[in-house]
Write the structure tokens for this entry.
Amino acid sequence: MMQNKDIKRLSLYLLFAPFALWIILLVILPHIGMVVLSLKEKIAPRVYEYSFANYLEFLNEPIYWNTLLRTGSMSLLVTALALLIGFPIAYYIAKIAGPRSRGGLFLLCLIPLWVSDLIRAFGWILLLRETGVISNFLLWTGLIGEPVEFLYNDVAVIVGLTYTVILFMIVPLVSTLDGMDNAMIEAGYNLGGSGFTVLRRIIIPYAMPGIVAGCIVTFMLTAGSYLTPILLGGKNSSWFTEQIYNQFITRFNWEGGAAFGMLLLFFTSLVIWLGLKLSGQTLANTVAKS
Amino acid sequence: MTDNPSYDLECLDVSKNFGSIRAVKDVSFDIPSGSFFSILGPSGCGKTTLMRMIAGFEDPSGGDIRIKGKSVLGTPPNKRNVKMVFQHLALFPMMNVYENIAYGLRCNGVGNAEIKRKVHDVLERIALPDVAEREIHQLSGGQKQRIAIARCMVLDPDVLLLDEPLGALDLKLREAMKIELKLLQHQFNTTFVYITHDQSEALVMSDNVAIMNQGEFEQIGTPQELYHHPSTAFVASFVGDSNRWSGVVKSSDSTGGKVETEQGLPMSFSSAGEKTMQEGSRVNIFVRPEFIRTVRAGGGDLQDAAGENRMDGIVDSLLFNGANSRVLVRTGSGELVESDVTLTGENDLKPGEDVHLVWSSKQSMCFADQGKA
């Protein structure tokens, strides 16, 4: 008996160990390090003092918090676009497509994930640049007289980001919509609801946990993305992650970079907290569920 | 044609094909206002397809469906005044009871004060006045059932469709809900169309029952008619229990005749209606267990047991089920015959005893054999 219990306990520890190591070594420790680092102020070479100077610098320099606000608002826009485009796709996969084509369609959504972010961004560059496919096509049709540069503007960044993150919107939506009994939609019509009423009163409320989960994931991924805004937005992208990169690498100001990193974390967490409050959902029944 | 407003629902030659499969074949029926009509059939017989066509979720491949005398073909489901109680009820889990019932009224643009009055009114009528603010998951199975009905009835439908709504309930609750459904139907005085594969549900509750098999209606009638005067072998075997013998007609006239079974036993029957069985034709004979009397061999009461048909056998086993107890008798030719018996606990039949089985030719239902039925 006793031995059996010990074996059970040991196997539990062994199963739990990789998870605990991952959480402690890769999540908790680096973040503690970041917090400590961000609270240090360099007063002379190799002499540091604890202070909030790095955070104050962020507040005193409008370009920094403007960049953060810009990143936040554009990320919200990308999230909204991903939801608007992703919802009909998810609805089609979960409810309209037959059981056989469902798997295939889902796989099609997953295929872009097999290619790295970098390659996907270069794909957009090939399409959008001055000598790219779209510009050439428009020249050929005669709609434009001379080559047009579609890259290096906000639209290109938003299109590219939406494309990158939309999958993370579709997956939780498909799984919640899949769990919805078709009879519920039919009951919505049967009781006199129009297509719009059924969508607004039944389908969307039912899918709310999936919608919120998808929005949280896409917003986090977008606000924290680096490659796509830099490659598609160029110098004009002013993405907050670029500021963090500059602090760390260009200016070798690790303390400033750490403070910016923490600020991005606080900011996105705040936005998500607000979103959860507004939609009346909790983390437990959204992200944890899907 | 029949623009008769006393029928709430009429179906004329309704059919539905899925590819080359004919799920529903030219079904016609009409349901008088305020009656309880059941469609009874084995699973896969097309009854759900028929119901979905009435509700508007499927378009018939042919025929016409009329509600209150008006054709509803081409009317979308949300514009038909036919409401449906789904198999798994399909209550909306994100709304509470009040909102579930109010949903349909809101869709119709009813004012808030009116909604409040109607919802409380219908909750009173289903005897659940205090559950308005409860969430769906806080209700018991029977309560959910009643809320699903209330959600439809609050809209005052012409016809209420019920798609095996008792299937998910446990046995005790199912028995109670059968009676309750019948009472609710009386109370609302609305036409109920009830779909089920459970014959006892259909027989207990319905004014009329249609027996459906392989996309067609075999017979429509009152429960008593179906039980005592089935018009086809399928109805005889599907509704109620019966013992079945195959045989060949030896002699026959308009009142009945004699059959020799495959086991070589003579058996007499009286024909239903004026049908005369062809002599020499193959037939099936059905006899209900409750019409067979089991009499101890050598007992003095054999003379009292009136009946033209007799069989001798040995009690194989007793199936005790209170008032519905049965005895299985192995006859001389080896087959098992079921017969109802009253077990009093004293001097009952015991396995191994010799018995006579006796029944009247009136209770032998004879149908022409249509190949493999």
